[in-house]
Amino acid sequence: MTAPNIAVSIDVGGTLTKAAIVDGRGKIRAEDVQPTATDIAPTRVPAHVAGIVRELLRRAGVSPGEVSGLCIGVPGIVDYRTGDVLSCPNLTNWEGMPLGRLVEEEIGLPTYLDKDANLAAMGEYWQGASRGVRHSICFTLGTGIGTGIILDGRLYRGAIGGAGEIGHITLVREGPLCGCGNRGCLEALASASAIVREARTAVARDPSSKILTLAHGDPATITAEVVFSAAQEGDITARTVVMTALEYLGIGVASMVNALNPDMVVLAGGMAAAGEIIGDVVRHVVRQRVRLPLAAHVRVVIGSLGGYAGVLGGAYLVFQGLQEPVA
Ligand SMILES: [Zn+2]
């Protein structure tokens, strides 16, 4: 058997879709980012995905015969064995779609489907911050909060592929409503969307906040990035919003440290771009709230791959063949 050396990897986000041709050393040969096709009919999705793949292969000068497989990361729960999308709150018209099988039929390449947070964890494990680390949990922080759990160097998927939905553990009994339908989830308290929601409420009370200045006076244009910038410039209102969210995040991380005793926690995803302000608070809360020797052992770090963790993890999955291709 010849060693496979080229994979196509697509990371579908709620707003942007990133695609890449990746070689066996983790080098990106070609890449593409475009808005996620949220408005096209489900029946046209496989052809759309195939179009992205063909265009990338053409640009990279790679023929389909040189490609080991294709991996698609989806922001939801997928049955990785069948390639069915089970739940996808950001792309509801994909729910129930046998996406993996349809794309495989369309493109003729072995096709894998997995949860985006699992792929980010695999990417950081293969090429990033947790390279070679035996037990790690990678938090993907963005619109939502997901995690990928790697135990003994292997992704832990749970019974139906839904392990790692730590964003939906309840932290506040009657807390804010979460996208999943529950109240007080970690995701509803500490995600980028939660920060934006709290910032909008806060600027209504404090219109002089730098948050509003940076958002050009329009609360509708507030982003988590804006809130972090205002906090880093010393704005008290922004700092309160950010610190409250990060303390909840720290509590979520501390809970997982208690549950799984990892060697490392990686903080990845768009929000992790804010950097060590997040790492510092989470490390502090973990030290404060994990009262067992586990806290002294775990390293909490910011991911080192930025927006590339997902596509690299997808390629790694193809190369490792950690699961059978969609039947
Ligand atoms: Zn939830």
Description:
This protein has 327 residues and is α/β, with parallel strands linked by helices. It is built from eleven helices and twelve strands. The protein has helices at 45-60, 99-107, 116-127, 186-190, 192-205, 210-214, 224-232, 236-260, 276-289, 294-297, 309-320, and strands at residues 6-12, 16-23, 28-35, 69-74, 77-79, 84-87, 111-115, 136-141, 145-151, 154-155, 264-268, 299-302. The strands form three sheets. It has a five-stranded mixed beta sheet with strand order 3-2-1-4-7, with helices on both faces. A hairpin with a 2-residue loop joins strand 9 (145-151) and strand 10 (154-155). It is globular and about 60 Å long. The structure holds zinc ion (ZN). Residues 168, 178, 180, 182, 185, 187 line the site of zinc ion (ZN). Zinc ion binds at residues 168, 178, 180, 182, 185, 187.
Overall morphology? globular
> Roughly how many Å apart are the termini?
21 Å
Instruction: Give me the Rg, rounded.
Output: 20 Å
Query: Would you count the extended β strands for me?
Result: 12
SS element count, helices: 11
Bound molecules: zinc ion
Q: Which structural class matches the secondary elements?
A: alpha/beta
Could you name the key traits of this structure?
globular; binds zinc ion; 327 residues; 38% helix; single chain; five-stranded mixed beta sheet; 12 strands; alpha/beta
